[in-house]
Amino acid sequence: MGQRLVIVESPAKAKTIGKYLGKNYIVEASMGHVRDLPKSQLGVDIEKDYNPKYITIRGKGELLEKLKKVAKKSEKIYLATDPDREGEAISWHLAQVLNIDKDEKCRIEFNEITKNAVKNAIKAPRAINSSLVDAQQARRVLDRLVGYEISPVLWKKVKWGLSAGRVQSVALKMICDREKEITEFVSKEYWSIQCKLYKSSDKKSFTVRLVSRDNHKIEINTEEECKKIIAELEQGEFNVIKIKRSNKNKNPLPPFTTSTLQQDAYRKLNFATRKTMSIAQQLYEGVDVRGHGTLGLITYMRTDSVRVSEDAQKSAKDFIINTYGDKYAPSTPRIFKGKKNIQDAHEAIRPTYIDLTPDSIKDSLKDEQFKLYTLIWNRFIASQMSSCILDTISVEVENKPYQLRANGSNIKFDGFMKLYQYNFEEEEETTNIPEVNEGERLLKKSIEGKQHFTQPPSRFSEATLVKTLEENGIGRPSTYAPIISTLLDRKYIQRDKKTVIPTELGIIVNSIVSEYFKEIVDIEFTAEMENKLDSIEEGKARWNNVVDEFFKPIQKSVEIAEKEISKITIEDKVSEEICDKCGRNMVIKRGRFGDFLACPGYPECKNTKPIVEQLDVVCPKCGGNILVKKSKKGKKFFGCSNYPNCDFVSWYEPILEKCPACQGLMVKKYTKTKGLTYECTNENCKNKIYKNDK
Predict the structure, then answer these.
(1) Which of 97, 128, 159 is the last residue of a domain?
(2) What pTM value is reported for the model?
(3) Which residues are catalytic?
(4) Domain identity same for 168 and 283
(5) Residue 161 has pLDDT above 90, yes or no
(6) Main-chain phi, psi angles of 46, to 5 degrees
(7) Quick one: which of 151, 202, 238, 596 is 20 to 30 A from 213 by CA?
């Protein structure tokens, strides 16, 4: 057998695959895309059926020459790029460059990088799927047309360098609309009533909540109403009228899709969506595992499917039985139902080797890799385990004409919860309920009324934004992280603690796009466009026609916008800081790593300064001021104003309160289990105060 060339996308993937193939195989990496539309021009011939003009990406010329030389010496070429539309498009471009015939069976794909998967793929090559390529090409052309038609309008009317994206504009509108809801929200007062009751034979109390009056749901809107009801309850008797006991099965969640992985990693690990996908890519492409060599540890991480292969299910069942016992494995494998309109081209995200538990390979993984791998491994194994069985009890108490209720539960059989703990969002608040009987009279320990106010909708976090995009059919697994990254990079949104909020610039851009390009920000229209891209992939639609149908209305909207939109000036905020070079009041500008001060006299005066935030805390080393600073990567930290003469620095915020044990400096820390914690920075003390403020 002569030399055979396998081309993948990354060196890590090449290293892993090369391990499984013999000496007759050479594995090279394309380093992602090799051709794309030119940056300096539209690159799409609108008059000729929207034909794209592709050029070699800058810096890829030398690489392509190398691939051509190796290809000429090779008896067979296999294109093993990622198993999705984008991967298919990269293979198509490589085939074009290497002059591979369109009918040649050169394309191989696998959902996991394991020895069996790679060797089986080599045995079953296929021709490049032109429908997949067309779907990706349609998306690329659509995005280019939107960007190159609408962006110049923003340059002329708002600010040079702005841009508008097809899918990103919908996400931006969602964020801006949510912010508007919050701003315009009018809070309303309401009250709730809780009673602590006990049996005459047992002084231990439990809590019941007022739920209805004459068996109709009750709403208490004022303090006066609340006091009146409490007075009536004080005069009446509390009698148990109904007890309902039952067993409730709680089934495990399905294994991760791209969306649910991003959501869980954000909630549990505080990983941004971009970070999650970067680490998942590393785990998929291959990690050097001690004693095993380079292994791909998870299946392909861009998927909207919850399907699991029979082999993986069997491996999981064997592991569960051997580790936890027969009762922890269900009698029949779990089949999870996916959402409508999913691609289902791949499996769910799961570990490729069940026996490689997170703890067994911890010393081979970086800390962030270990955390994400643990999340994926636990979620998958739990998804294949038996249900958790809860003993539930509901006690209804009557104090005529009012009805009150208490719910309680305890775990009868932990099932999957032995491995994977999570809160059931739909579950009502529960309490520990003693043994009571129907008709039994209960005694009152206390009655309390609580004031509440309706709350505005929460701002989006990256996790909830991804969830909302998926629910509305906006974007696909490969696009969620880039959507958020693009909005952040363009300064249309910014992070505020764990949420994202629109910037002034984002609000202005959204208002223009929403008014003049309604189709682009219409959720149903954008979701339907995703469906049409799916139709192209399925061979049911011609990509040029789909592009034409979308683009013609955009052209007309651009003409109207250019005539009607007036020039918008975004004024810089004036600060009280005086420029020490020319005496002007400096203005606040936004840079790559946040806000900074700049002289408005630019270009005559080019003076800039960082915005210094000072804490009411003194440096423990020299008594100087503690300043809030930012690292080169934009991460906040705290340092002494006397730097470099004083080297005090902390990643955690110092507080004014001194350590009660040693009078040392204390800092704020947050943990998942303890919430807000004050910790002493004195190495010999390390005293901690738990504030219980989660």
Answers:
(1) 128
(2) 0.80
(3) 300
(4) no
(5) no
(6) -65, -30
(7) 202
